[in-house]
Amino acid sequence: MDTTSATPHDTDTVLDEERGGDEDRGGRGGRFGRFARHPLGWMLTGMVAVGLVSGLTATGPGPVPVLGAAAAVAVYRLVMHRAARRSTPETGRPGAGRAALLGGGTGLAFVLVSTLLITAFGSYSFSWAGGDVLPIVRTAVMVQIGAAVTEELLFRALALQALEQLWGSRAALVITSLFFGVAHLGAPGANPWSGVAIALEAGVLLGAAFLWRRNIWFVAGLHFTWNTAEQLLGIPVSGHAPEGLFTVQTHGSALLTGGSFGLEASVVPVLMALALAVPMLVLAHRNGGMKGRRRAGR
Question: Which of the residues 7, 69, 91, 214 has the least number of beta carbons within 10 Å of its own beta carbon?
Fold first, then answer.
């Protein structure tokens, strides 16, 4: 992977702890303002706002999920500017296309190589589904853009960045990865192993990708092609059986195939994701993208 364009941003340097601090310190506005500027305050505020936008648009027809993703980005920027009192270089437009393409290529390679390995072991076989190609692809793209952008705003842009301000990048990565796994336990076909698998592969890999690049478009691109490729191949996406271009038949151990939960519960992508995440974390450390625990009183 190309690392020359990775420019980690110190998101703490743009915090403005004093702005508005003298306004109504004894009143409700002052107390609310101090809460909103606390990392847990703006994290919760942002998660509620972005989650609301996602809930209203995620399953909408046509381009509604994409419009919802754009609205979620705008809401995230507003929350960060008004509550956290910081800029949002992680959602910056310059270089966004390149970052999304690089992340998308990483996610596509990740899914295709994992699928090819499982197929080579004789555990996957595919057949053409026979549907209309363009409507299926269009629907998959629209839905997965919305899902990828909003989930990355929630888990990486908000939760990971807030928690790392309090306890450092390593603790934030562990906590958000566990939370990501728990959040998928309600999916069809989920079980304790699928939760662990999601935490290790998706939580750790996507978190490491964000810490390395400090760019939401890179991580959203990775997430988008991951889910879209699975859907178009006809593989269940986190337990949800998609309408894809192919149908997949599984053979053998669920530990290899992922069972009814899909590829993400297979041990193959778990190992591949960790193999990708480790060098990303090493590069993040070298580039200064890993933050330590915040000192008391700061």
Answer: 7
